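Fill-in record for methylmalonate-semialdehyde dehydrogenase (CoA acylating).
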Amino acid sequence: MVRELTHFIGGKHVPGASGAFGDVYDPNTGQVQARVPLANRAEVEAAIADAENAQRVWAAFNPQKRARVLMRFLQLVEGERESLARLLSAEHGKTIADAHGDLQRGLEVVEFAAGIPHLLKGEFTDNAGTGIDVYSMRQPLGVVAGITPFNFPAMIPLWKAAPAIACGNAFILKPSERDPSVPLRLAELFLEAGLPAGVLNVVNGGKEAVDTLLEDPRVQALGFVGSTPIAAHVYATAAAHGKRAQCFGGAKNHMIIMPDADLDQAVEALVGAGYGSAGERCMAISVAVPVGEETADKLIAKLKERIATLKVGRSDDPAADFGPMVGRDLLDRVRGYIDLGVEEGAELLVDGRDFELAGHEEGYFLGASLFDRVTTDMRIYREEIFGPVLTVVRAADYEEALRLPSEHEFGNGVAIFTRDGDTARDFSRRVNTGMVGVNVPIPVPIAYHTFGGWKRSGFGDLNQHGPDSIRFYTRTRTITSRWPSGVKEGASFNIPTMD
Ligand code: NAD
């Protein structure tokens, strides 16, 4: 039975009216399990109108009351973690254990946003001039929107929705059409937690829905996460329509392995960060950079041995290290990149192309692949593959290894494995990427710090979550006041100074 999904607008499930639908697959079997409506312009505009009305009511809640809604939401999710993780895994294809992590990293940002009374406190200068006080306050923007990718269907919607609504905005979420069920369930739970209807609307759709959000003057700000070409398009279009935007794109994350690194630890880190979630993470390691031929030879010998033990299986198989890819199109794309790497002259040491899971021949499974002797002119090095493919670029020395991620067009995350504090410290300060791990392969910052890549991995000046998210979802009003004496001196035609 194919379920028919809805939008979630004004606190209600609203069936699609456009007549257009997308298919949601079971990546384990390749079968369609649900149909998701794709909203047209009129449907998105109705959601915006609804959000605009709800926002006025919500902004009048004091911050402490808004925080209590987030706290109740956290309690409600606690009661259904397992079912949410299963639902997520069933549409995305990541393992259930990994789906728990997806949810957890999102909930941590809700916990952070529950501190909103403290986070919204403004600044005050007493007696900035004689009898004059200056103070600033952070006020919500109004209606804001988030457009999110398929690969973290719980985490990224929560990274955006929680700070946005905590600040007093209404939020319209346009989740990925590949796995929309968890975002819809999270919106129901927010309503149950006491969020007024319409403060969090979920509108499913594709380009038409996004274009409407970009062009409608009632939407004040847009947060986007997805591939770089769309991130760049959303950023430019939002700016052209006078909107605030933060847009995060693709990645090519390197891991430098110094000759003094613990190689067993480095290999474990590489297989986990390279192949976990079938490589469908923006912080996945896709390029290993061993420094020196000896390090490279030893690393590769150990990697090949370890890859041979990896278990690819159904997403609900507790023994699986990773499950299927999300869709047939992505599977074909990644296979195409492996073909290309061979044509380009890289050495394919482990070939995952022919992997099949018995009884699941129509599922979107791909084995782990490993390329050695990849060079910087190859497309498999320059472009994001977004699958279980690890490439090895050998560097002669530390400076060459440092240059590789620094000169790459993407600048999301990077890691260095070494036992030397001085090397790690130098690397952390000089490498040209937004997030750095020292003996940590996936350095996704914790909720109260901020997450964001550099170069073509991130467009906009403020990061996600942490204090930046409060700045992004509010605007500052600054008040200069003099009273009770008022203006006694009469009109002044000069710019006021604080004499
Ligand atoms: P995607 O760009 O295909 O889709 C992202 C969102 O944009 C979806 O909601 C989709 O419906 C919408 N969209 C797609 N085409 C559009 C168009 N032409 N106009 C307007 N909207 C459009 O990305 P994806 O495949 O869902 O996600 C994978 C990508 O996201 C990878 O590149 C990955 O690196 C990136 N990602 C980045 C981060 C980060 O923080 N930098 C985090 C997660 C994922």
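KEY FINDING: The longest helix spans residues 41-59.
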